Amino acid sequence: DKAALEAFRGVATKTADGKQVLLVANIGNPGDATAALEHDAEGVGLFRSEFLFMDAKELPSEEEQFSAYQKVTIAMKDKPVIIRTLDVGGDKEIPYLDMKREDNPFMGFRAVRYCLNNPEQYKVQLRALLRASAYGDIKIMLPLVTTLDEVRQVKALVETCKKELDAEGVKYNQDIEVGTMVETPSASLISDLLAKECDFFSIGTNDLIGYTMCADRGNDRVAYLYNVYQPSVLRSLKTIIQNGVKQGIMVGMCGEAAADPLLIPVLLSFGLTEFSVSAPSILRTRRTISEWTMEEADALTEKVMSLETSAEVRAALQAAAK
Ligand code: PEP
Ligand code: MG
């Protein structure tokens, strides 16, 4: 099987009838870029920048962050690299940020909420990202967005940082793209509005499933509810992808579901154009994509979207799997 997979190295990622999509990797630290390339990733779809913060004893400086982002983008050559700004809180704790204990951290003061309430601190990361964008194709991505205002506020901060860098004579990519994770039910429901304000979407199914089903991904007792085959989750994915496609922006997915061979035909049919998966899943995902024509994927998806339970959906996808 390993040898068979090697046939998918070095080729474009296409469906059986030739529709091309982008197949990129999720990474956690700059060193992972090498593994991503070894597994033939076409770029990075999610660099979880919180690892830079979690491995440190205090806030990483602009220089430290710049050098990490620059390292990734240089390693990836001219390939696209989506870097997500700090996604702190929930299951991701950073002791020195000295955040208050909350009864309900998954619905609390976290991610883009925390960052927008600490704009001077957030600007350090945005400036580092802008500076690194002079060395490759870096895109900025926001975590846990729930409102249009959050996106507008981040974009305003990016503009402030650009002006500062201009005044200092520092180079950066003027046209740097700013996009958002779509990983909350609110973002999904206003994805038509967000699509007008964002350069791209990346769907975070890990959180989206949890928030849609009100089921913590780490809780065994509600694990039976936590899956991507739930009709509510599928309707949400369809809404997000179609709203993005309608607006002409790239819609990708960086949650685990992007590598689920059962779900891939459905994602193709909805119009997903970027799949971001763990490095070891790259070649296998490229093969799965190559096994489907759009006509087959559309027919299967039409059938699946008429089913009423996650068990029926899973069974139908399993029966159709190649
Ligand atoms: C997600 O929520 O799907 C995601 C990719 O982000 P994380 O797993 O880091 O929360
Ligand atoms: Mg998430």
From TrEMBL:
Catalytic activity reported: L-histidyl-[protein] + phosphoenolpyruvate = N(pros)-phospho-L-histidyl-[protein] + pyruvate
GO MF annotation terms: phosphoenolpyruvate-protein phosphotransferase activity
Cofactor: Mg(2+)
The organism's place on the tree of life at top rank: Bacteria
Record keywords: Cytoplasm, Kinase, Magnesium, Metal-binding, Phosphotransferase system, Sugar transport, Transferase, Transport
Enzyme class: transferase
Subcellular location: Cytoplasm
Keyword set includes Transport: yes
Ranges of residues in domain PEP-utilising enzyme C-terminal: 4-291
EC number: 2.7.3.9
Reported function: General (non sugar-specific) component of the phosphoenolpyruvate-dependent sugar phosphotransferase system (sugar PTS). This major carbohydrate active-transport system catalyzes the phosphorylation of incoming sugar substrates concomitantly with their translocation across the cell membrane. Enzyme I transfers the phosphoryl group from phosphoenolpyruvate (PEP) to the phosphoryl carrier protein (HPr).
Assigned protein family: Belongs to the PEP-utilizing enzyme family.
Protein name listed in UniProt: Phosphoenolpyruvate-protein phosphotransferase
Organism of derivation: Olsenella absiana
